[in-house]
Amino acid sequence: MAAGEPGNMGGYYFRFLPQKTFQSLSTRETTSRLRQWSMLGRIEAQAFGFDQVFQAYRKDEFVMAFFKDPNVIPNLKLLSDSGQWITLGTEVKKIEAINIPCTQLSMSFFKRLYSEDIVRESGHIVKCLDSFCDPFLISDELRKVLLVEDSEKYEIFSQPDRDEFLFCLFKHLCLGGTLCQYEDLLNPYLETTKLIYKDLVSVRKNPQTKEIQITSFIFKVTAYDSDGVCYPSTKSHEQTFSYFIVDPFKRHVHVLYHCYGVGEMS
């Protein structure tokens, strides 16, 4: 049986947790920023509970069981091609769940942007001559370091750095939606990344070492029906994503979803 295809669903049962809210996405300041970045109304976080011990090596079974569950099907939100929030409405035949490393506990991860002159001491992002990395306009050194692999400073973040969930979240916010208005200052990106990251990711103190450690497992998820990709969208885009953030202790899964397009403007 191919990975991620239906089989024994491992006995996982899920329940929707509508009472769980994600303040990081709904504060006045975040709402204003998401509007500027053309992501407002197109980004969503939802929470679900589950009833069995989570085992990371069985992630494909877990994710497939999620998409098959009668409590998930009518509640999991996604955007239609016309920009309306809908539920799945199709039978998932196959899934792909990519492990996303999540080890970073500090925003000092991004200090190199200052030391490498991507950002000035004042916090202003250094501008550059306009170019395109389809479909993104690159008008500053930050977008260049995020997108242009042959740029001079691309390697200040190694591939393992770029794989980290903290980096992925930061990059998604920096690139935004179709009509994204870029920031002149780095801080709005860092602040919003930190708020959402803390809201989604679980930590606990190791009883032996007393050190704080991340306990969440994170997967970037794609689902397929008989016609092809059906989730997070039938149209593939770097800025269309769904991350499943699994807390094995609380037995919760947080779903962070975004579909690239024109966000709400008012």
What coarse outline follows from CA principal-axis ratios?
globular
**Share in β-strands:** 25-35%
For the biggest sheet, the summary is:
7 strands, antiparallel
Radius of gyration: 19 Å
Number of strands: 13
Could you characterize what this model shows?
This protein has 266 residues and is α+β, with helices and mostly antiparallel strands. It has 7 helices and 13 strands. The chain has helices at residues 28-36, 59-68, 112-115, 141-147, 159-163, 165-175, 187-200, and strands spanning 14-16, 43-50, 77-79, 85-87, 94-99, 127-133, 136-140, 203-205, 212-214, 217-225, 228-231, 241-247, 252-258. Strands 1, 2, 5, 10, 11, 12 and 13 form a 7-stranded antiparallel beta sheet that branches. α6 (165-175) packs across α7 (187-200). The N and C termini lie far apart (49 Å).
Summarize the SSE layout with pairings.
Layout: E1 14-16, H1 28-36, E2 43-50, H2 59-68, E3 77-79, E4 85-87, E5 94-99, H3 112-115, E6 127-133, E7 136-140, H4 141-147, H5 159-163, H6 165-175, H7 187-200, E8 203-205, E9 212-214, E10 217-225, E11 228-231, E12 241-247, E13 252-258
Antiparallel strand pairs: 1-2, 2-13, 3-4, 5-10, 6-7, 8-9, 10-11, 10-12, 12-13
Keywords:
266 residues, alpha+beta, seven-stranded antiparallel sheet, two-stranded antiparallel ribbon, 7 helices, 13 strands, globular
Overview in brief:
The chain has helices at residues 28-36, 59-68, 112-115, 141-147, 159-163, 165-175, 187-200, and strands spanning 14-16, 43-50, 77-79, 85-87, 94-99, 127-133, 136-140, 203-205, 212-214, 217-225, 228-231, 241-247, 252-258. The protein has 266 residues and is an alpha+beta fold.
